[in-house]
Structures are given as structure tokens and as C-alpha cells.
Amino acid sequence: MLDDWRGEFDYANLTQRLQLASVQDYRRLRVWRNAHALALKVRRATNQFPRTGYASFKSQLTSAAESIAFNIVEGCGANSQKELARFLDISMKSTTELQYQLCLAADYGVLSDLESKSLVVEVIDVRKMLCGLRAKVLASDQCRSPHTDKRTTVKRDTDHA
Fold first, then answer.
1. Given CA atoms 118, 120, 124, 125 in this order, what sign does their dihedral have?
2. Cα-atom radius of gyration of the chain, to the nearest Å?
3. Where does residue 77 rank: exposed (0-12), middle (13-18), buried (19+ CB within 10 A)?
4. Does position 146 have pLDDT exceeding 90, yes or no?
5. Which residues of 102-115 are buried (b: 16+ CB within 10 A; e: fewer)?
6. What average pLDDT is seen over the chain?
7. Which of 71, 111, 116, 135 could cysteine-pair with 90, CB 3.0–4.6 Å?
């Protein structure tokens, strides 16, 4: 019986409607794709850490890397451009955290200097993209919002004839 029910349900239509309901489809954002790839690379890099002594640090590194992409996704489901910008700001902060953690990993000797520097370059690129996207989102929000200046306008008579 469940098979019959699933066969009649229009999943494609539901998916399309859900995509239209969100503010932005995160999968279309290059910054999300880069952040996702970065999270995967950080996960692979931390898998090379020693088995003992670095479990908490490994978890923090992967969490910071994943948080970048997670917040982009969550922001794209936000109800307003302002809220999207707030989540992009959180993502930017996660890039700063990750950048330091990668430097620390190199200092601990659990990540090569070359790999650390390579990942840091990617982190900085993602941060720049986030900054640019956030600026565009905030600018578009200001264009859409009505001007809420509290000053009153006095109509002046220009005909003095």
C-alpha cells in the first residue's frame, strides 16, 4: 500500500515548490560550493591526525569548516535579506576561526605547513566571497526597503509671481 501512495505523489512538484519558498537556493551559490569543498578537504586533512591526543581539536576543526557551509544554507532559508546577511556574517566568523585552527594544526605538527597554507588560501577566498555576497545582500535589502526617514517634508510654494 505504501508503494501505491508513493507512486501517486508528485515529488518533483513538491521539490520545486519548496525551492521557490526559500529566499535563495544555496546550491546555486559558488560560495556554498567552495565552502562545501573546503569542509570535505578539512575532513580529509584531519583524518591524517594521530589517533590519540587530538580528538577534540579534530572535532573543532571540522565543526568550524562545516559551520561555514551550514550557515550559508541556513541563511538561504531565511525570511529576509537582512537575516540572510546575518548568517553570512556568522559564516565569515567561522572562516576566521578555521584559519587560526589550521595555523595551530601546523604549529602542533599534525598538519604540514604546505597543506595548512593551501587550506588557509581557500579559507581566505571563501571569506572574500562571503564578504562580497553579504554586501550585495545588504545593498539589495536597502533598495527594497521603503525609506523610513522621520523628517517631515514641507511643500514650498515656488510661485512668487
1. positive
2. 23
3. middle
4. no
5. bbebbeeebbeeeb
6. 83
7. 71
- Integer Cα distance of 101 and 119 in angstroms: 11
| Minimum mean pLDDT range among 17-21, 50-54, 92-96 | 17-21
C-alpha 107/C-alpha 104 separation (Å) is 5
Alpha-carbon distance of 102 to 113, in angstroms, equals 9
Write the single-letter amino acid at 19: Q
Could you tell me the three cell numbers for 85? 546577511
pLDDT of 112 strictly over 80? yes
Give the number of other CB atoms < 10 A from CB of residue 3. 6
The beta strands (E) that lie in 42-157 are given as: none
d(CA 84, CA 153): 34
Question: Can you give the residue ranges of every domain in the chain?
Answer: 26-144
**For 26-144, CATH number?**
1.20.1440.60
Q: In the predicted model, is pLDDT for residue 16 greater than 50?
A: no
DSSP summary character for residue 27: G
The per-residue pLDDT for range 31-77, each reduced to its tens digit, is 999 999 999 999 999 999 998 999 999 999 999 999 999 999 999 99
3-state SS class at 54: coil
When pLDDT is averaged across residues 101-120 and rounded to a whole number, the result is: 97
